[in-house]
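note to self: dont lose this again. the chain is below, predicted strucutre after it. 135 aa total, dont forget to put it in the shared folder this time
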Amino acid sequence: MAFSTQSDNDEVLSEINVTPLVDVMLVLLVVFIITAPLLTNAVQINLPKTATTAPAETPKPVTLSIDAEGQYFLDKVQIEGDDLEVILGGIKAANPDLTLHLQSDENVRYALVANAMVAIERSGITKVAVMTKTR
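---
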């Protein structure tokens, strides 16, 4: 909008009136504040009551440990590294939903951990968790 003043110079004064803009924004804010809680609780449901059931029993995971000397332990029982694939294959055959936890000492050689992971993969175990400590 251009306004002219009654002064001697013919300068045009242009200003934007922001009051209507602020009014509209405040009205929208109030509308959103009122309608937002109504949208989250749109459907009220009363769930039926049933008898409680026992949770599904999940098998305990098997833990494969490698100590600092490079010895393999399967659930705290020492095993030979050459027999690892055969033993894990037998355990997998007995329990198809087997979960294996792999943990090794931080000072163990990488080759020993890599060999264990190859044996785990060849035995068909797909659920493997590598255990670490948080800092």
